């Protein structure tokens, strides 16, 4: 049976991410699209490509295998950046270009390279325009100035600049302490705010805005490698809930050596959320409790700031990707929550209707804004709003999940759907499709049989997946709940993806699989998202129970006397919670990387939903499950990567210790050397087999 091959394929293709084109950059004239893609669906080495829009021809610009021998040696700082972004590939995993999209810069093994994107060849071979620069390494996050004359980068905590010709390498800002660094994002910015960078060029290339990050106030934790006791533990600065964050300041640093501090009330607004440097320099900052988000306009000469806008919310102000932004005419692009809708604002005026939930701003092309939004939470569509009179327009129509890029009248549209595997990428010129960018991802050996429904009175978006061999009425099926279920992430969408593929594989093992998005998940409006404030456990669990019962009403073959639940991260927390609090409903659970003690997770994410632990201690007690260990009556498997620096191993180890102290049998599966992603092929493959074996034994299916 083909499903027997699925775990190996799933692991080998890195969740079917290899060979998928991504990170599109459209040139300002719209004539060229740069993108990343590996050569095949089982090739982890990502290459840099371009597409000529007029001819539809692709050109391989850089193949990393031609630039180095042996395996890639990734610097520690780059490993941390990749972990924050959940990057699983090797080779060129990121690049940056000048304003005209002619020069690309990237790193390999901490070495700095440039490549011309405007070379004339269309052959499927790297052009001879790739060049390594003699920079002080290891090089992290290089970015060219708008003219392409210079490249700023980070090395050993210093912000440096080098000429695109390789000359004049020098430091612009060097660490003034052992725990100070310039030019990179701190942990919570990269992990929780969506800010993955720490330096930005001025439009004229004369200076940079640079983040100075001092981690000395942050507590130190140690990540050890128990499987290799000779290896020293790794120190991390982890700002757990209620503890000090890194001290982040912003500096305007000129190529002439000038240095000016950006002034704002950093004591009140300690989070630097986002930066946009167009005709004006805009910085958004947020209070520790996240209830005020302030947009500042910065004077690049003096560092003085004025308040451009300030948003308040009784619970938290949501950070919307892509903001702030400005149009070519200088209009401010922003969002606000009005009429239980996240609406797009242009110069303070809403331009999207109630009920259309804005997800992200993707690009601004002149006076045209490209953004994603949802009328139905399982679908995310591509929209534009154009000034002065083009108005609102929906670019995607068939049910699915869409994204894209826009510049110079050329739009790259990505589409995922329940009707096809993988991601389809089309290129449109002035609204008309002119080319496709091929995906080289492998075709899955399984086809997910997803049926979407609205479950119960709360119309919980729910997916049901049954075995392909099952005939309705032919017999009862044990049930596997397979949720994430919590804030910030959806699983129930109108698109095939690796999560539905995994769910279908479990279905082929004899389960009816139910996936439900409960309260707190995005796409249904601010009130739905914020209904979990103060309690991320009880209401979310209740939604899972409601979805299960509604699915059983629609599909009578679901056997409610044999119900299991599995999940990872928040889903792992939810799985453990389910067998602790509702053993009458759930009969076995697999909990991977479960945050069992809410005080051990980071400040920005956890305090958003539970408040500060000194002010809301009951919220942390009520939502931590370690003290409920004695209530366990059902089989429970705990899975934990011992190198995880996001949900650290202490979550699982402390919970296991509490279960042992209470005399509650349970299974612990420690994964040495594995982080929060578990990218190792052998681990990713066998985790699926081990989980299904445990669940079948626990439900008496063997």
Architecture overview:
This protein is of the alpha+beta class and 702 residues long. It has a domain at 450-698: Alpha/Beta hydrolase fold, catalytic domain (Rossmann fold, 3-Layer(aba) Sandwich), CATH 3.40.50.1820. Helix content is 16%, strand content 36%. It is built from eleven helices and 44 strands. The strands form ten sheets. Strands 37-38-40-39-41-42-43-44 form an eight-stranded mixed sheet. Strands 1, 2, 3, 4 and 5 form a five-stranded mixed sheet that branches. A hairpin with a 5-residue loop joins β25 (325-326) and β26. α1 (6-12) packs antiparallel against α11. The protein is globular and about 70 Å long. The two termini are 20 Å apart.
Question: Structural class from helices and strands?
Answer: alpha+beta
Percent of residues in beta strands? Answer: 35-45%
SS elements, strand count: 44
Average of per-residue pLDDT values? 95
Please report the distance between the alpha carbons of the first and last residues.
20 Å
Output the strand order for the largest sheet: 37-38-40-39-41-42-43-44
Largest sheet: 8 strands, mixed
Enumerate how many helices there are, as a single number. Answer: 11
Give the low-pLDDT segments: none
CATH architecture of the domain at 450-698: 3-Layer(aba) Sandwich
| Quaternary structure state of the chains depicted | single chain
Q: Which homologous superfamily in CATH is the superfamily of the domain at 450-698? A: Alpha/Beta hydrolase fold, catalytic domain
CATH C-level category of the domain at 450-698: Alpha Beta
Radius of gyration: 25 Å
Helix content: 10-25%
Shape: globular
């Amino acid at each position: 049976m083909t499903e027997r091959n699925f775990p190996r394929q799933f692991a080998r293709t890195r969740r079917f991410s290899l060979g998928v084109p991504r990170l599109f950059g459209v040139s300002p004239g719209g004539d060229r699209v740069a993108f990343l893609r590996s050569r095949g669906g089982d090739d982890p080495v990502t290459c840099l490509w371009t597409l000529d829009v007029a001819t539809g021809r692709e050109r391989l610009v850089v193949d990393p295998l031609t630039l180095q021998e042996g395996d890639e040696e990734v610097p520690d700082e780059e490993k941390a950046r990749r972990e924050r972004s959940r990057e699983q590939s090797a080779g060129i995993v990121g690049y940056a270009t000048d304003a005209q999209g002619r020069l690309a810069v990237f790193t390999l093994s901490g070495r700095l390279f440039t490549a011309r994107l405007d070379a004339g060849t269309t052959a499927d071979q790297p052009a001879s325009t790739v060049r390594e620069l003699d920079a002080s390494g290891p090089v992290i996050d290089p970015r060219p100035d708008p003219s392409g004359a210079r490249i700023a980068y980070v090395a050993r905590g210093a912000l440096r600049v080098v000429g695109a010709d390789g000359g004049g390498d020098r430091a612009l800002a060097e660490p003034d302490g052992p725990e100070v660094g310039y030019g990179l994002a701190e942990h919570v910015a990269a992990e929780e705010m969506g800010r993955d960078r720490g330096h930005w060029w001025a439009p004229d290339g004369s200076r940079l805005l640079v983040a100075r990050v001092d981690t000395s106030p942050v507590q130190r934790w140690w990540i050890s490698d128990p499987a290799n006791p000779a290896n020293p533990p790794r120190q991390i600065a982890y700002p757990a809930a209620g503890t000090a964050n890194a001290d982040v300041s912003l500096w305007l640093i000129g190529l002439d050596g000038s240095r000016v501090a950006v002034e704002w009330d950093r004591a009140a607004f300690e989070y630097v959320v986002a930066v946009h440097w167009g005709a004006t320099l805009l910085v958004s900052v947020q209070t520790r409790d996240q209830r005020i988000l302030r947009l500042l306009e910065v004077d690049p000469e003096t560092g003085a700031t004025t308040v451009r806008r300030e948003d308040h919310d009784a619970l938290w102000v949501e950070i919307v990707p892509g903001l702030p932004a400005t149009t070519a005419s200088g209009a401010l692009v922003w969002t606000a929550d009005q009429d239980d809708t996240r609406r797009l604002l242009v110069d303070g005026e809403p331009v999207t209707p109630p009920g259309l939930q804005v997800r992200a701003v993707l690009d601004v092309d002149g006076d045209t804004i490209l953004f994603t939004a949802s009328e139905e939470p399982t679908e995310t569509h591509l929209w534009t709003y154009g000034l002065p009179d083009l108005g609102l327009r929906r670019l995607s129509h068939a049910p699915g999940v869409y994204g894209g890029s826009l510049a110079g009248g050329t739009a790259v549209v990505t589409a995922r759907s329940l009707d096809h595997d993988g991601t389809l990428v089309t290129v449109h010129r002035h609204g008309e499709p002119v080319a496709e960018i091929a995906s080289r991802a492998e075709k899955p050996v399984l086809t997910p049989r997803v049926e979407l429904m609205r479950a119960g009175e709360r119309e919980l978006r729910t997916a049901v997946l049954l075995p392909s061999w099952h005939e309705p009425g032919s017999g009862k099926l044990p049930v596997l709940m397979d949720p994430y279920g919590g804030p910030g992430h959806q699983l129930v969408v109108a698109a095939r993806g690796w999560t539905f593929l995994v769910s279908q594989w479990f279905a082929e093992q004899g389960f009816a699989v139910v996936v439900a998005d409960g309260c707190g998940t995005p796409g249904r409006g601010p009130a739905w998202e914020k209904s979990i404030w103060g309690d991320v456990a009880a209401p979310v669990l209740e939604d899972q129970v409601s979805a299960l019962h509604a699915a059983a009403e629609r599909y009578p073959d679901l056997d409610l006397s044999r119900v299991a639940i599995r999940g990872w991260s928040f889903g792992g927390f939810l799985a453990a919670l389910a067998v602790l609090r509702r053993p009458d409903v759930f009969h076995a659970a697999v909990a991977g990387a479960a945050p069992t003690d809410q005080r051990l997770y980071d400040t920005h994410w956890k305090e958003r939903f539970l408040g500060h632990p000194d002010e809301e201690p009951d919220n942390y007690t009520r939502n931590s499950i370690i003290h409920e260990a004695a209530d366990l009556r059902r089989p429970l498997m705990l899975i934990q990567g011992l190198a995880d620096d996001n949900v650290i191993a202490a979550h699982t180890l402390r919970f296991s210790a509490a279960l042992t102290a209470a005399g509650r049998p349970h299974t612990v599966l420690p994964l040495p050397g594995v982080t929060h992603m578990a990218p190792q092929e052998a681990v990713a493959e066998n985790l699926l087999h081990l989980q299904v074996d445990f669940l079948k034994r626990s439900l008496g299916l063997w």
